[in-house]
Design a protein that fits this description.
By secondary structure, the protein is an alpha+beta fold. It has one domain. It is built from four helices and ten strands; from the N terminus they run E-E-E-H-E-E-E-E-H-E-E-E-H-H. Strand 9 and strand 10 form a beta hairpin. The longest helix is centred in the last third of the chain and has 13 residues. It is globular.
Length: 161
């Protein structure tokens, strides 16, 4: 679906998602200690005795067939983390509670440590991350959806960084 962007004025064919390749906790470990203290894959991360999984916060886009996705990291209890690693491709496990460990800088109010629930999915898909229904702007966006213009505004916010 073509769309003329109100942010940059260009015509776009599709809307990309935004994602974090590491949990924010990764950045708190000194560079020289990372190799020893961190085990990072594309979908999981262990930092000392803290466990994280990568998932997607999906935001409905009004009058658009696809949702906008934020690739994020959430903490997990060790038992839940182990269960996920044993069964990464099933919707039979969970849902599991976790804390959001990705700051989404687009939102002025910090997103770090918002309460989440990870819903696991079949089909080799990353877990769908649902935020606790609060008045935080990200939770409101997930619950109520955003316009396509706002989705592109978010994308362009990250293209500047």
């Amino acid at each position: 679906m073509n769309f003329r962007c109100h942010t940059c004025g260009k015509e776009h064919d599709d809307r990309p998602d935004i994602g974090a390749d590491k949990p924010d906790n990764w950045w708190g470990i000194p560079k020289k200690e990372r190799a020893k203290r961190i085990k990072l894959t594309g979908d999981t991360c262990i930092i000392d005795d803290d466990y994280f999984i990568r998932g997607v916060i999906e935001i409905p886009v009004h009058d658009y067939p696809e949702k906008f996705g934020f690739g994020v990291w959430v903490s997990q209890k060790k038992e839940n983390f182990v269960t996920y690693r044993k069964h990464p491709d099933t919707s039979v496990i969970g849902p599991f509670f976790g804390w959001l460990c990705t700051r989404i800088a687009y939102y002025e109010d910090s997103t770090y440590l918002l309460k989440t629930t990870a819903h696991f999915q079949d089909g080799n898909l990353r877990p769908r991350i649902e935020l606790e229904p609060t008045d935080h702007p990200l939770a409101v966006d997930q619950r109520e959806g955003i316009t396509l213009e706002k989705a592109w505004e978010i994308v362009h916010f990250y293209m500047k960084e």
